[in-house]
Amino acid sequence: MSKVNWGVLSTAMIGQEQVIPAIQRSSNGEVVAIASRGEKAISVAEKLDIPTAYTSYEELLADPNIDAVYIPLPNSLHKEWVLEAAKKGKHVLCEKTAGLDYDELKEMIDACVHHGVTFMEAFMYQFHPQHAKVKELITSGAIGDVSFMRASFSYLLTDESNIRLDRSLGGGALYDIGCYTIHSICNILNDQPTDVYANARIPEKFNVDTTVAGVLSFENDIQASFDCSFDVTPRQTYQVVGSQGTIEVVGPYRPDANESGEGFIRVVKSNGETEEYSVAGDQYKLQVEHFVDSVIEKKQPSYTNEKMLNHMKVMDAAFHSIETGKSIKLS
Question: Which part of the chain is the GFO/IDH/MocA-like oxidoreductase domain (predicted)?
């Protein structure tokens, strides 16, 4: 196998605007089918030049020509369709957040292992080379000893009918964008926190978190803070603070939203010196190519099952902290 044939479950905009075009740009994959509940897949297939449209997810999963599926359904539907895809022998790239909690994600991973298919949660941002550059700068001692990190992601959500505000569909700011802030902290620091504290704004009319702020504590005395929100102006940034300077990444999660389309890194040292780096990278294309390479080479992606489960442990702890008002210790 040198190429993978993809099917897409749902006509979600993230698929139409980002992931399907990325697969079509990739060197090792092709989108051959898309499915919806009803007729919408037909018009989307025509618009995006996809050969086959199905009016049910079951029909797509029964297609023997499809090797892998991309699932951008609402969070609450991920488990059901990951399990169904695994049963049909399809490799699965599932949009984040893959599971609503650790137990859901573990069941999904176990099913994929049992059926011998590759599974990965679609945290596309981590495949952008700007983050490797940040790690390189930290390792080189560019900012001395790291003691603090902060990550923020927000946008103003005014459409009250948006599924991100529907609790039954796995809505909320922490699932939607806060997951990136937590993920990036653990990714850049290459560590798991020992303690998690979070609080949230939960409007009664939605009963989901629309703003969350929290703190992660690590064994090596590094502290980190994260925040996410549907209630404020768009922001996406993270900063790594050391004894001799600060690294700031502007647009770490969606650098394609920047005017230049590049990741931008600024290093400010204690002596006032400043270094700036622009880092180009097609993170959606890099993600799908890495996933397909893992399928072809029959190995786990670099974002391993263990890493996915570790991330979900932190997410669970943040939700538990919001519910109890207490700091949660991770074992």
Answer: 132-248
Entry pTM: 0.96
Examine the domain organization and report whether 65 and 103 are in the same domain.
yes
Give the DSSP letter of residue 55: S
Q: What is the dihedral of CA 137, 138, 143, 148, to 10 degrees?
A: 140
Paired residues of 5 in beta bridges: 30
According to the model, what pLDDT value does residue 126 have? Answer: 98
As a whole number of angstroms, the distance between CA 208 and CA 160 comes to: 12
Q: Which residues contact 141 (CB under 8 A, 6 or more apart)?
A: 244
Residue in the structure block whose two tokens are 């927000």: 154
Please give the torsion angle defined by the CA atoms of residues 205, 209, 210 and 211, in that order, rounded to the nearest 10 degrees: 140
Q: Is the pLDDT of residue 196 over 70?
A: yes
Amino acid at 152: S
- CATH number (domain holding residue 117): 3.40.50.720
Tokens 């994959």 appear where?
29
Q: How far apart are CA 19 and CA 25, in angstroms?
A: 10
Residues with Cβ < 8 Å from 25, sequence gap 6 or more? 282, 285
| 325 shares its domain with 182 | yes
Please determine, for residue 258, whether its predicted confidence score (pLDDT) is greater than 80. no
Mean pLDDT within 3-19: 97
